[in-house]
Amino acid sequence: MGKKDEVEWDDVQGIVLSGYRELKRSAYLLWRFQSDDLRRNRKWLYDLTKRLTPSQPRPSSNTQPARNLALTPSGLRRLGVDQSTLNSFSFEFLEGMAPARARGAPIPRRTNVLGDLEASSPEYWNWGGWNEDTRDIDGLLMLFAEETEIDQLIEAEMRVMADIVDDEPIVLRGQLLDEDKEHFGFKDGLSQPKIEGRPKKSKDAHSKNGKSEIKPGAEIKAGEFLLGYENERKARVTDGHDRDIRRNGTYLVFRQLEQDVPAFNTFVCDVAGKIGETDDWVAARLLGRWKNGDPLVAEKPNGSGEDAKNNFLYWYEDRAGLRCPIGAHIRRANPRDSLGPDPETAMHLSKMHRIIRRGRPYGERWEPNGANGNSDKAERGMFFIALNADIAGQFELIQHSWINNRHFNGLYTGTDPISHFPDGDGITIQNRPTNLRVDRPKPFVTVRGGAYFFLPGIQALHDIAAFA
Ligand code: HEM
Question: Which pLDDT belongs to residue 254?
Answer without folding.
Answer: 98
